[in-house]
Design a protein that fits this description.
Length: about 325
């Protein structure tokens, strides 16, 4: 009798393991993509292109002319647009928006104190002597001036307010309060009717705090990252992880964007050129980018913005390796 009982338990356990394994496999294979075509674009940072030693205008034009990118996110860094107190320099952003308009390219403009690219907060030198409350006042004035400057630009389709504002573990930034972020969002919406995008970490956040703040929600998607204790490792989340997390915080599928899809090497200290060429190739290849994009599409996001186009162009022009650049062209057809 005991033997039969043990055998029955063993059979049930095996069945459970098989069913559980099948469920996990189903989650990894499940495609949540929308029936309609998902938009694929890139993020372009002038300052990052310059860090790589590129002519940033040449790199930008190559992105929208040679790659034929039709959706692009650009950045209004505070230290570049207001390098001196109350003295604005808008030429670069205006030039990018105008070139985008000429080519029917849709633009997301990221604004605020914390914007894409390391070290996240790009503070002008002059604010470093100001009290925190005064910094916040100047920050709101800067946002107001940027929105008023560009709200009549046809190529501009969406504002992004701050970048992963509550990811205190990453970047060199002062913490931001939820109330102040809401104040920034309200200011932008009072000045222009375009949708506002709020972003958060795809892997390190629940999205509970950020999911419902904007009209659109964007998250990062990184599959291979670095930890100082264990080195490089891969996330094992299935696409369903992102899909259901969005549903749980009340997000509609059409309002979720992959704002930052890993398509360049993860660098421990944030500076790409600290890696040699062989390490770069080991960490990121055309095959990995294609795999990451296929994975991102299966999360069901309505738009996907690849991260690293400036590096692809650097690889093409500075080290004579055009494999990344050329393999990416079909993504934007």
């Amino acid at each position: 009798m005991k033997l039969k009982f043990k055998s029955s338990v063993l059979v049930l356990l095996i069945i459970f393991v098989i069913l559980f394994a099948s469920f996990i496999i189903m989650l990894f294979l499940r495609d949540f993509s929308l029936d309609n075509e998902q938009k694929v674009g890139v993020t372009f940072s002038k300052s990052y292109a310059e860090y790589l030693g590129l002519d940033w205008q040449e790199a930008y034009l190559a992105t929208i002319d040679d790659l034929q990118v039709k959706n692009i996110r650009i950045v209004a860094q505070w230290d570049e647009i207001e390098p001196k107190f109350n003295e604005y320099y808008f030429w670069d952003i205006t030039w990018m928006l105008d070139r985008a308009y000429e080519r029917n390219v849709d633009v997301i403009l990221a604004i605020g104190r914390r914007t894409p690219r390391w070290p996240e907060c790009h503070d002008p030198e002059w604010i470093k002597e100001l009290a925190p409350e005064k910094v916040r006042q100047e920050q709101l004035l800067m946002i107001k001036d940027v929105v008023n400057k560009y709200k009549d630009k046809t190529a501009l389709k969406m504002w992004q307010v701050e970048n992963e504002p509550f990811l205190d573990s990453f970047g060199e930034c002062e913490p931001i309060s939820l109330n102040f972020l809401k104040e920034e969002i309200s200011l932008v919406k009072s000045l222009d009717s375009r949708p506002v995008l709020i972003t958060d970490s795809g892997e390190l956040s629940t999205w509970i705090k950020t999911g419902q703040l904007g009209d659109k929600f964007g998250h990062t998607l990184y599959r291979e990252v670095y930890n100082k204790y264990i080195g490089y490792f891969k996330h094992v989340y299935p696409p369903a992880y992102y899909y259901f997390k969005g549903r749980l915080v009340g997000l509609k599928q059409r309002d979720v964007i992959v704002a930052e899809l890993q398509a360049e090497p993860w660098v421990p200290d944030g500076y790409t050129l600290q890696l040699d060429y062989e390490k770069m190739k080991q960490l990121m290849s055309p095959e990995k980018i294609e795999s990451n994009l296929d994975y991102a599409k299966r999360t069901g996001a309505s738009e996907i913005y690849l991260w690293g186009v400036e590096w692809w162009y650097w690889m093409k022009t500075e080290v004579d390796d055009d494999s990344l650049w050329n393999s990416a062209k079909p993504y934007f057809e």
